[in-house]
């Protein structure tokens, strides 16, 4: 299996360019469902230790249904197949450029949740025009053990998020462990209360916001992903969901650009255009760098071929 690895603002992406499982020729959503239900061990092992690394998001490149798209993509982390991935899409664009499949300019990519556009400005700098994003519920209050009441918004940016505007824990690198624990408790409370997105969409990402640490930053975020790793980048889909909340509250004007910092201090430039009455189209600009071209070899006799599982 041939893979190309990259990182987007510190967050790793592994693109499977050949040798992945046959997912058929249905819609991208149908192929994502087949990956989720029939190939769990496979996708886990591609991104988990010892074959992958913590926080890695994997991508299978597939034939798109829409002939206008340069590629179809299906994203996953070590715990789940996810609908869309902003940092992953920036990584895919840099990877397709590295492979000589796209050049400078704008290209369409098909995901299980819709078509997105990528604009490659140079070999590393990519702007993603994401799927329509929206806020579903404002000020949902949760009682969190050892923390107290936490209030957040349920919003969509390609995945479903619980977005806490004022983090109960300062968003600084030395608090990563505490931020992770609090975010996991928040996600557990969401599960207990059976809160979901539209059509039962699972709220599997939690974002905590705090003040920016750089002079020009708008804010800094901590993002918990389904595999309990934190996003090293500011999270493209999470930033999209937050933009929808800022727009809904009239806290950010269309086309106004902000700098979103991640927990590690990397950043995205963000803006949006209004779409329908309750949705916006986000723009996310960041940089990805290729780190590796490799052949991944999974020996059937390796007892850890499906990744390390600690119970
Ligand atoms: O950038 O959208 C994102 C993302 C989702 C999970 C990890 N990164």
Radius of gyration: 18 Å
C-alpha geometry: globular
Ends apart, CA distance between termini:
29 Å
Helix residue percentage:
10-25%
Relative strand content? 35-45%
Number of H/I helices: 5
Report the biggest beta sheet as strand number plus sense, adding barrel if it closes.
8 strands, mixed, barrel
Stretches with pLDDT under 50, minimum 5 residues: none
Task: Find the structural class using helix and strand composition.
Answer: alpha+beta
The hetero molecules present are: pyrrole-2-carboxylate
Taken in chain order, the helices and strands follow as EEHHEEEHEEEEEEHEEHEEE
Fold-level CATH name of the largest domain: Diaminopimelate Epimerase, Chain A, domain 1
- Domain module tally: 2
- Overall mean pLDDT: 97
Q: Kindly report the name of the CATH homologous superfamily of the largest domain.
A: Diaminopimelate Epimerase, Chain A, domain 1
CATH architecture of the largest domain: Roll
The CATH C-level class name of the largest domain:
Alpha Beta
Number of strands: 16
Strand neighbour order, sheet with most strands: 1-2-3-4-6-7-8-16
Biased composition (Basic and acidic residues): 1-12
Protein name: 4-hydroxyproline epimerase
Region (Disordered): 1-22
Family: Belongs to the proline racemase family.
């Amino acid at each position: 299996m041939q893979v190309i690895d990259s990182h987007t603002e510190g967050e790793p992406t592994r693109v499977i360019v050949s040798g992945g499982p046959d997912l058929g020729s249905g819609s991208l959503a149908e192929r994502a469902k087949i990956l989720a239900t029939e190939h769990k061990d496979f996708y886990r092992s591609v991104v988990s230790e010892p074959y992958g690394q913590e926080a890695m998001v994997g991508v299978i490149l597939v034939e798109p249904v829409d002939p206008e798209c340069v590629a179809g993509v299906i994203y996953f982390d070590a715990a789940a197949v996810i609908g869309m991935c902003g940092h992953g899409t920036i990584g895919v664009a840099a990877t397709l450029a590295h492979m000589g499949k796209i050049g400078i300019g704008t290209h369409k990519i098909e995901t299980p949740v819709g078509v997105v556009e990528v604009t490659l400005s140079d070999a590393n700098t990519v702007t993603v025009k994401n799927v329509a994003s929206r806020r579903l519920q404002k000020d949902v209050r949760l009682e969190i053990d050892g923390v107290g009441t936490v209030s957040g918004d349920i919003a969509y940016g390609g995945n479903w998020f619980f977005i806490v505007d004022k983090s109960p824990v300062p968003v600084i690198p030395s608090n990563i462990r505490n931020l992770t624990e609090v975010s996991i408790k928040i996600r557990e409370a969401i599960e207990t209360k059976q809160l979901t997105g539209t059509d039962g969409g699972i709220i599997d990402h939690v974002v905590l916001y705090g003040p920016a640490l750089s002079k020009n930053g708008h804010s800094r975020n901590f993002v918990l992903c389904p595999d309990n790793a934190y996003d090293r980048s500011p999270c493209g889909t999470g930033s999209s969901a937050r933009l929808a909340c800022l727009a809904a509250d009239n806290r950010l004007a269309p086309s106004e650009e902000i700098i979103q910092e991640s927990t590690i201090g990397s950043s995205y430039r963000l803006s949006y255009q209004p779409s329908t009455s309750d949705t916006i189209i986000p723009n996310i600009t960041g940089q990805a760098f290729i780190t590796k071209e490799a052949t991944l070899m999974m020996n059937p006799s390796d007892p850890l071929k499906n990744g390390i599982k600690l119970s």
